[in-house]
């Protein structure tokens, strides 16, 4: 059997944070180094437009996220790393799939349903502020996935339904036009940590509780000091398993270091001291990539060149696939 293909996209609507790093970037880079899979990673800038309609934000986020992956050691010779909008075959395939997608399937998408529900709860019309991008979002995502015949899609739990929809759409297309697409499956890794944010909820852009990945040392220290803790005094035993400080520690520490910190919690380490140690640990691991990242931000043309190379590599596949699929639906030269 040919090598398994892994593909995932990162929406370019904000700055990369520690949760992105621990939950997505680090495991993806590790998997790509193992050599056991063929990896496709891309910047989902078309997806960003659904929510982020500030051009400067989308543009800056694209640079920051690309620079973060490169600074953290993504080896672009081993993976295909590209920007969605550099692959014109993706919107083209999106349309071909749109015409094979039941509207009823899209009505059931969680993200869309949640937006409608919020309108109803707020006494608004069902459709207020909902654009067609949000409604069709899963079809664009299906095109991202099916374009490269990916098998495994590493995603967070909130995205499982979208991958299942991609599978449904592929099935329907294959049934009608012949076997063109691999049926993808979501891969949700339970070992990968979902970091808590400053307020103890899941670290997420939408909660505004993130610790950005590449802060200056001073600001990183400040953010770590803001992590919510309880009122236990130095000397009083503390519970590591309900503490965001410990949880972030664990995501960066070795097994031994985690054991040690567990013992320190039992011994009543002061919150200030635990946070100081957490800062040292995280800062040590981010110091080198941070320098690389700042260099790349100063040299956006260098990042652009890497993305252009990635697009060239990706388009070898996407242009071949789209030619086949266009032919299959009856869009081909007349004579
Ligand atoms: N929708 C995904 C998210 O918000 C990002 C994404 C876009 C994606 N296209 C994809 C993820 C294709 C996996 C595969 O997280």
Low-confidence stretches: none
Order of helices and strands: EHEHHEHHHHEHEHHHHH
Termini, distance in Å? 37 Å
Please compute the radius of gyration using only Cα atoms: 22 Å
SS-based class: mainly alpha
Largest sheet: 3 strands, parallel
Helix run count: 13
Ligands: tryptophan
Q: Globular, elongated, flat, extended or rod-shaped: what is the shape?
A: globular
CATH class membership of the largest domain: Alpha Beta
Q: Give the total of beta strands.
A: 5
Mean pLDDT: 95
Q: Determine the CATH superfamily of the largest domain.
A: HUPs
State the helicity in percent bands.
Answer: 55-70%
Number of domains: 2
Strand order of the largest sheet: 1-2-3
Residues in β-strands, percent: 5-15%
CATH topology of the largest domain: Rossmann fold
CATH architecture of the largest domain: 3-Layer(aba) Sandwich
Notable characteristics:
two-stranded parallel sheet; mainly alpha; 5 strands; binds tryptophan; globular; Tyrosyl-Transfer RNA Synthetase; Rossmann fold; 3-stranded parallel beta sheet; 2 domains; 335 residues
What does this protein look like?
The chain has 335 residues and is mainly α. It has 2 domains: 4-193 and 300-329, Rossmann fold, CATH 3.40.50.620; 214-295, Tyrosyl-Transfer RNA Synthetase (Orthogonal Bundle), CATH 1.10.240.10. Helix content is 57%, strand content 8%. It has 13 helices and 5 strands. The strands form 2 sheets. Strands 1-2-3 form a 3-stranded parallel beta sheet. Strand 1, helix 1 (18-34) and strand 2 (37-44) form a beta-alpha-beta unit. Helix 3 (55-71) packs across helix 13 (300-329), helix 4 (89-98) packs parallel to helix 13 (300-329) and helix 9 (217-225) packs antiparallel against helix 12. It is globular. The chain starts with a strand and ends in a 6-residue tail after the last helix.
């Amino acid at each position: 059997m040919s090598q398994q293909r892994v593909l995932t996209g990162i929406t370019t609507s904000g700055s990369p944070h520690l949760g992105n790093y621990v939950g997505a970037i680090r495991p993806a880079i590790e998997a790509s180094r193992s050599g056991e899979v063929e990896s496709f990673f891309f910047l989902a800038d078309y997806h960003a437009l659904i929510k982020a309609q500030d051009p400067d934000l989308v543009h800056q986020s694209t640079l920051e996220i690309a620079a973060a992956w490169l600074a953290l050691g993504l080896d672009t010779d081993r993976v295909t790393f590209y920007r969605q909008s550099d692959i014109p075959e993706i919107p083209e395939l999106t349309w071909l799939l749109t015409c094979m997608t039941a509207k009823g399937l899209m009505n059931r998408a969680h993200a869309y349903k949640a937006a409608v529900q919020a309108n109803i709860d707020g006494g608004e019309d069902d459709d207020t502020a909902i654009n067609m991008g949000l409604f069709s979002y899963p079809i664009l995502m299906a095109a991202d996935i099916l374009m490269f015949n990916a098998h495994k899609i590493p995603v967070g739990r909130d995205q499982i339904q979208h991958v299942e929809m991609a599978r449904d759409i592929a099935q329907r297309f294959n049934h009608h036009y012949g076997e063109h697409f691999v049926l993808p499956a979501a891969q949700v890794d339970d070992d990968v940590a979902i970091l808590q944010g400053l307020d103890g909820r899941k670290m997420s852009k939408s909660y505004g509780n993130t610790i950005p990945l590449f802060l200056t040392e001073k600001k990183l220290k400040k953010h770590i000091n803001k992590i919510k803790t309880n009122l236990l005094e130095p000397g009083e035993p503390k519970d590591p398993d309900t503490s965001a400080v410990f949880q972030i520690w664990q995501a960066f520490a070795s097994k031994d270091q985690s054991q040690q910190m567990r013992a320190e919690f039992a011994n009543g380490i002061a919150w200030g001291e635990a946070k100081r140690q957490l800062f040292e640990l995280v800062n040590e691991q981010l110091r080198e990539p941070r320098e690389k990242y700042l260099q790349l931000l100063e040299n956006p043309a260098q990042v652009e060149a890497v993305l252009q190379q990635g697009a060239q590599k990706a388009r070898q596949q996407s242009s071949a696939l789209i030619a086949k699929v266009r032919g299959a639906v009856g869009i081909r030269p007349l004579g």
